[in-house]
Amino acid sequence: MRITLWRVAIFVALLGAWEWLTGIKAISRTPGLYWIDPFFISRPSVIARRFAYLMSGEVRLSLWQMALSTVESTLWGFAVGVSTGFAAGLVLGRHDRLARVFEPYIVAFNSLPRIALVPLVTMIFGFGLLAKVVLAWTIVFFIVFFNTFQGVRAVDADLVHSARFLGAGERQILWTVIVPSALAWTFAALTPSISFALIGVVVGELLGGESGGGLGYLITQSLGTLNAADMMVALVSLGFIGIVMALGIKQIERRLLRWRPEYRTERA
Amino acid sequence: MDRVSFEVLEGEFVAIVGPSGCGKSTVLNMIAGLVTPLAGAVLVDDTPVKGAAPPRVGYVFQKDTVFPWRTVARNIALGLEYRGVAGTERVRRVREAVTLAGLDGFEDAFPATLSGGMRQRVALMRTLVVDPEILLMDEPFGALDTHTKLTLHAELLALWEARRQTVIFVTHDLSEAISLADRIVVMTRRPGRVKMVHEVKLTRPRDVIALRESDEYAREYGRIWHVLGEEFAASGPRP
Question: DSSP 3-state helix, strand, coil percentages of chain B (rounded to 5)?
Fold first, then answer.
């Protein structure tokens, strides 16, 4: 309770300082000389007005549509990245030779700064949803892949033995021992994955232009018109979307891993 | 190990005791087919064991091998699932096993919420639910406190009296071996050999708690302890 109070107090103080310092002139009556120039960081009141305006139907591409586009691409990138990453991790985790063959390629591709791929991906996939999904995928895939791979490698040999004594065949061992143990590692990668998917999508949108839509487009557009208020609207919206998606995935992760003691104590 | 040889009769409860590192667990693993002997063979019903687990053998490990992501009921159902026992038959047998293990009300609990004793009960029932003819147990109660251990001894004996599986039970706890077994194979320190095979002359059914105070128990204990003591002494100071 006290902590919440402090948090709210700091928020109000920061917002108040922002509004106030960008409103008073450094030298009275001299135009343009503020303590802190709202040209660069805008003001909370102006941002709120722009927010309402961008949400309204008066604009061609509303904030809603842009947010939706960002969320949609993120979720797609996340889903495709998680499923392919899991499949690849499972296959390479099970086949040592294959893993050794592919290792340098994986390491090399993963060391590549993903942002450098944006122009290439744009060239191949254009400016739309697909390009954004691909960019998100290039990041999420590796996070999930490495985790799943580790998970398959870390399967407890005694569990495999005991399954065999209970009459399990190789396929049954795969589905009842290896996949569930690996999934525990995969699930633990879900929360960072959604955040990284969002990064991939926004990076794509920065270059994507209007057809790609999304909040990243609002940012570049604001840069073009030197409109700090709109940029702030986009940033705040992105932050909000990021938090909501991460919390949502965290809930799913907890549900899926509810058998783990550490997820029980957290909930209690 | 060196020239380890003993016989186990059908329906018999045999315990293997010996100093740690003598190869008790290895003997068990050979019977299970997990380890291939360098020379000699393990015969089950006159058929040599090789490679994979012989059919109808159940194995309870010392380590906790309950699947953490499955509930109690779904852990117990594993063997039936593997064998393709489906639907109502599976549900019925799992429910029976849960009741037998005294785990009513914990069917949907995950292992992480259970005590060590309860988890080992799940492991035991999971093995017994498929009705193995031979039950191999490798210090299954080694990690439990004395009280829980005694409770599980009583439960194990009750279950065994009902079905009379052949049991081979590895332990380093002599009192455990005497309480449970018909015969005790005493092994020497490395290289492990069979030092003696002792017949436990205690009547069944046994009350594992009252037994501990009886003179017969003390007599059995004294006799094996003497033999086992030579081994412990010879192997130097023990922790």
Answer: 40, 15, 45
Phi, psi of A46 (to 5 degrees): -65, -40
Inspect the interface and report whether the beta carbons of A261 and B112 lie closer than 8 Å: yes
Average pLDDT over residues A49-69: 91
Residue A239 lies in a domain: yes
B239: pLDDT confidence band, cut at 50, 70 and 90? very low
Instruction: Quote the domain boundaries for residue A146.
Output: 50-267
3-class DSSP state of B170: strand
Decide if A103 is inside a domain: yes
The answer regarding whether domain B1-56+132-239 maps to CATH 3.40.50.300 reads yes
Q: How many CB pairs under 8 A join A and B?
A: 64
Nearest to B79 among A167, A259, A260 (CB): A167
What percent of chain A shows pLDDT beyond 70?
93
Q: What angle do CA A44, A47, A53 make, to 5 degrees?
A: 145
Percent of chain A with pLDDT over 90: 68
Encode pLDDT of B60-83 as tens digits.
988 889 999 999 999 999 999 998
Question: Among A43, A48, A3, A51, which Cα is nearest to A21's?
Answer: A43
- Kindly give, in sequence order, each residue whose CB lies less than 8 Å from that of residue A218, ignoring residues fewer than 6 positions away: A54, A63, A66, A230, A231, A233, A234
Q: At what angle do helices A190-212 and A129-153 cross, to 10 degrees?
A: 170
Determine whether A90 is exposed, middle or buried from the number of CB atoms within 10 Å of its CB (0-12, 13-18, 19+). Answer: buried
- How far B26 CA lies from chain A's nearest CA (Å)? 15
Nearest CB partner across the interface for B112, out of A166, A177, A259: A259
For tokens 């996949």, what's the residue?
A179
User: Cα(B79)–Cα(A212) distance, rounded to whole angstroms?
Assistant: 53
